[in-house]
Fold:
Amino acid sequence: MRRRLPLLAAAVCLTLPNAAPREQHPGRGRVTRLHTALAQPPVLANMSRLAHTVEVSLTAAPGRLSLVPGTTSEVFAYNGRVPGPTLDVHEGDHVIVHFRNSLPEPTTVHWHGLHIPASADGSPLDPVMPGQQHDYVFDIAPGTAGTYWYHPHPDRRAGYQVAMGLFGAIIVRAEDDPLPASISEKLLILSDNRFRADGSADFPGLHSTQAEVDAENGREGNVLFVNGQLAPSVDIRAGEVQRWRIINASAARIYRLAIPGQELLELGHGPGFFAKPVWTREILLANSQRVELLVRGAGAPGSAVPLQTLPYDRYDPHTRPADWNETHELLSLRISAGAPASSVRIPATLRPVPALDTSHVAEHRVLVLTQGMINGKMMDLARVDFTARLHTTEIWEIENLVGMDHPFHLHGFRFQVLDRDGVPEPFPYWLDTVNVPPHSAVRIVVHFDDFPGKWMYHCHILDHEDMGMMGILQLQ
Ligand code: C2O
Ligand code: CU
Ligand code: CU
Structure:
């Protein structure tokens, strides 16, 4: 993977102005700004009559759907749509998901970020075979309100199945949500994909140059979606505040989110809120991370501002795409006509996030990331890499020795960043994935309060994960 590779040809950019509609091709050329209104994925219907119980059905199946306007192609979909329906639950809920695998290959459903028993985690250790049904049963832990997502996690095939259309959102709500209920809420699932002319997902041939580039960078697509839509629009009244939950469901792309001329109020970056909201000009959202933020309608009625992703160099110089430094428009925020919204009061504090106690640390571990490996090893489902004890606290130092970012994810447990290259994190907050830039080290602290069993940790670039940049923690 260290070989020198030719730079990729310039790819489609969604921000190109004045592209004519007839130039719209899924795989090559320009994609127009369609600006259809942003749709929200439907919520999974709860068929339970019991209080605090959410019982839903989820099927993964092949189907024919339009991923790119003007084409239909073979996809994999949850309940017949891409992205899948949203699992919308409350803290304390008992959740039963009747899952059916109607795909022609094994799959799992992994509930990314949820603090649930290992048996319900949907890791590669527990595949659901084609034609089989499996019930995922878990309780939503108190204090974990936030935005999460679900995706397949079968051995070696997560990237393929996500690219074929399998991903969906999870929203965990709190009874005592600190934000006023009058604020309207939007879910934005960010994904990207690469297509053939017939609109089907384009995967490189074995041993092709593109396959090598994808293995190195992670498969990145030139077409960017929000909730499966191309450059949709969101209407907002002047002065109105909206609450956005944004999920990075991309296999490899890291987003650097900004709205020109607007400061964003970041409420949380991962599983749960910050103790206090933070003003910021831009938000770096690594693979599998989520962010909650407040945006404001600023400008004259009829005007629009884009939600952009700014250039971010996460690449090894040898495989850095030629268009890496382009800005892309993800959606258009349009100031609607009508009376300006009256102002809402944003609370100064959200939810307490006490710093994890590091006075009794049971284990300090070092995890060295190289290209495709952790501590010099590729994952073996039959091997346990670390053994940890329940009810203990550990500090993990994650060291990236190579020239590109690797977003590191631990299943089942949220953690806090202590420091990055020795620089203390400014305040404690929760994460389940932390991005580790080239030649840098991040120290995290995690407390194992519950749930014995085997837990995966891995790079969340799906190609890296599928190639085995993953390990297993046994908690006992
Ligand atoms: Cu989204 Cu193993 O994770
Ligand atoms: Cu996970
Ligand atoms: Cu990686």
